Amino acid sequence: MAPHTGVMEHLDVVIIGAGLSGIGAAYRLQTELPGRSYAILEARERLGGTWDLFRYPGVRSDSDMFTLGYPFEPWRDDKSIADGPSILRYVRETAERNGIDKRIRFGVKVIGAEWSSADARWTLTLREGQETRTISCSFVYCCSGYYDYEQGHAPHFPGVENYSGTLVYPQFWPEDLDYAGKKVVVIGSGATAVTLVPAMAEQAEHVTMLQRSPTWISAVPGRDKYADKIRELLPPRLAHRVIRAKNILFSVGFYQYCRRRPEAARKLLTGLTTRILKDEALVAEHFTPSYNPWDQRLCAVPDADFFKAMRKDKAEVVTDHIESFVPEGIRLKSGKVLEADVVVSATGLKLLAFGGISLTVDGSPVDLSEQFVWQGAMLTGVPNFAVCIGYTNASWTLRADLTSRLVCKVLAHMDRRGYSAVVPHPQGSLRERPLLDLSSGYVQRSIAEFPRQGDRSPWRVRQNYLLDSATTLRTNLDKTLKPVSEAAALQRV
Ligand SMILES: Cc1cc2nc3c(=O)[nH]c(=O)nc-3n(C[C@H](O)[C@H](O)[C@H](O)COP(=O)(O)OP(=O)(O)OC[C@H]3O[C@@H](n4cnc5c(N)ncnc54)[C@H](O)[C@@H]3O)c2cc1C
Q1: Contact 200, 306 (CB under 8 A)
Q2: Does residue 57 have a cis peptide bond before it, meaning omega lies within 30 degrees of 0?
Q3: Which class is 160-345 in CATH?
Q4: CATH number of this structure's domain 10-150+350-492, picked from the four choices 3.40.190.120, 3.40.50.720, 3.50.50.60, 3.40.50.1000
Q5: What element of type H or E holds 106?
Q6: Ligand 1 binding pocket includes 149 (Cβ within 6 Å)
Q7: Per-residue pLDDT tens for 78-127?
Q8: What are the pLDDT digits (tens) for 311-358?
Q9: What separation in Å is there between the alpha carbon of 144 and the centre of ligand 1?
């Protein structure tokens, strides 16, 4: 580590990450607690996080932008389900309009955070290029997303060294990849695969989506005609609020319907897909998963673009397993060979807890898997530290924004009570549950490394915005949030 000279800079709050969440967090902090000194530390050279990193053809949201966008910044574009560059522009413009861009320090990766109870402050170790330095702060708000920016999930494919075509990964899309007139195979069946297939089919000779098993896919309108009407009638801010409320009610309602009436939801989704593809056998074979809708994240396809590419014979789905790569493509367990000039391995993200930052509290390393999450935001055993985790069954920003407002409430509460450090502490014991309740492979592979949720409120990470929005900001902070000295005493009892 490079020796540190001079006086260490101190900030009231450090926000880690300048993605959708970090920019939203900064907005809340500077609006609700204008006197605080803060900075956003961003490992990359650009803001936008996910929406800047992913550049594969067709990259887009599958949530509507009235709920994935901020409640305080109307979404003005025509399309409700937006492409990556439009989302990036929206995040950038929000940052610029509110002077947040000037608070971002780019190319600064936080690699360690050490808490000292004696000083009631964090010392952050930062990597800037080859240099390492430290700053201190009173409160850390970690908006670092949920996956590893440096590597995706890359399973080893047998025989891949013999393949004579081009193998690419969506997270690291080669800018100059030319697939016009070529045969493409996309491995995977998640949101990325179903986005890539119609987008690449526009130029490729043919695109095959190779899946091990089906995923629930639902066609949704890319443009929301009700939203258009509301925007014609109302001023932008009011229209944004009304459309947002409508979409929240619809998404919460549909999720609850799927969870409570899985058989009916299965029928509804297969019925919709059959109506588009007009082929019951095809839907039964490739689009009827064994799990129930919303056991894993549901994939939305705007304007049925994915199914339309199939109907035009530009794309097909094959459900099979890879035996091995061969020079001309992929040999399947069934014996069939899929010829491919380009193979895209859309096999998912690698989850990473809290930007991979190593945390220590009073000299002891924090084992995240032993901590519980309070209100989906703060961790037991880790004072003055909050994390921003969005919903898995609804737009990320719905919870991210609630969490940012809760963090402001906590900071104001600390001021009022004269506390320099607080940590959440449960009354009685908690039964542990995994943080995310999804059976998807990418969640199951790494969820053990994340903190746990408890079995009761406010230690449950509910996937229900209506309940959270009614209770999160009304929570009794005195009941759970303890000044650090008191929590330490409770710990010893
Ligand atoms: C292709 C794709 C499509 C998606 N579509 C949707 C969707 O439709 N709806 C939805 O709700 N969600 C979607 N998501 C999830 C999406 O990631 C979130 O919606 C949202 O963008 C997360 O924002 P964030 O700011 O929390 O995290 P990110 O966008 O991941 O940004 C985190 C930022 O933190 C920085 N960072 C990380 N670690 C450190 C560190 N140690 N030091 C400094 N900086 C650090 C990163 O460089 C990055 O800029 C999608 C994800 C992907 C990958």
Answers
A1: no
A2: no
A3: alpha beta
A4: 3.50.50.60
A5: strand 104-106
A6: yes
A7: 999 999 999 999 999 999 999 999 999 999 999 999 999 999 999 999 99
A8: 999 999 999 999 999 999 999 999 999 999 999 999 989 999 999 999
A9: 7
